[in-house]
Specification:
Shape: rod-shaped
Transmembrane segments: 103-121
CATH topology of the largest domain: Coagulation Factor XIII, Chain A, domain 1
InterPro entries: DUF3426
Helix content: 25-40%
Organism: Methyloprofundus sedimenti
Keywords: Membrane, Transmembrane, Transmembrane helix
Radius of gyration: 54 Å
Structural class: alpha+beta
Mean pLDDT: 81
Protein name: Zinc finger/thioredoxin putative domain-containing protein
């Protein structure tokens, strides 16, 4: 609210800024009914008040004392200024501890599921990798969980093989090989192929370790750098054999 003095009768009346805008700064004195521009009156009143404040400030300025205070006078310590209060936003506030615990539990569960998926889909192929298998073996030993038996046919080397006639229709198969892998391997399968006098194939069979091992108690594992001598008998059709081949599978 503004107090406006009538320029004619000095009658004081109050008027709001909203009323000034509505009447476009034209005000009618309630005493003498004079219509005048309120904005002009307000500006003149403001300038007069500023002059009065300047005069008051000039009067209140004290003269500088020529007296010098003694050095022994105690120096007043400045008043301590309180630290400003800093408002924090909700996203800046510290989260409760249980949120961190949930995050930690979620991360551990996620890592466990990821490791399980890798093992489920890639576990066997990774265990057959000669570079990765030693590292996986460390974890499997600590977890007391055996790895699948290592198998790499390329790391077997055949020393010699022989097909010997024992009796009509009965032959003895002999083959020797060595395991060059750095790990123990399962004994390979043995493929025996028989050819006629014209070179055509007339008989073929794959023998598993369970079939060609004579003793049931013989282990089906061959250690690293160990050699194996396999000897077993087969029965073939009544036909002349022109050639044969014995391979590891």
């Amino acid at each position: 609210m503004y107090n406006i003095l009538c320029p004619n009768c000095n009658h004081s009346q109050q008027i709001s800024l909203k009323q000034l805008k509505k009447k476009r700064n034209n005000v009618t004195c309630s005493a003498c009914k004079l219509q005048f521009n309120a904005r002009t009156i307000l500006n003149s009143q403001a300038s007069q008040s500023q002059k009065q404040e300047a005069l008051v400030s000039e009067v209140q300025i004290p003269e500088i004392s020529t007296l010098i205070k003694a050095r022994s006078q105690a120096i007043e310590e400045p008043e301590a200024i309180d630290d400003p209060v800093i408002e924090t936003y909700s996203w800046q506030q510290k989260k409760p501890a249980y949120h961190s615990q949930r995050w930690l539990a979620g991360v551990i569960l996620g890592l466990f599921l990821l490791a399980f998926q890798v093992y489920y889909f890639k576990g066997y192929s990774l265990s057959q990798n000669p570079q990765i298998r030693p590292w996986i073996n460390i974890f499997s030993t600590k977890l007391n969980y055996p790895l699948p038996v290592y198998r790499n046919l390329a790391e077997f080397s055949t020393i010699g093989s022989k097909l010997k006639l024992v009796s009509p229709g009965n032959y003895q198969v002999q083959i020797s090989f060595i395991n060059h892998a750095d790990f123990a391997q399962r004994l390979p399968d043995i493929l025996v192929s028989l050819h006629n006098l014209h070179g055509g194939l007339f008989a073929r069979r794959i023998f598993t370790p369970e079939e060609y091992l004579s003793n049931e108690n013989t282990p089906e594992i061959i250690e690293s750098s160990a050699n194996a001598n396999i000897d077993f008998f087969i029965t073939v059709p009544d036909q002349e054999i022109g050639g044969y081949s014995i391979e590891l599978k």
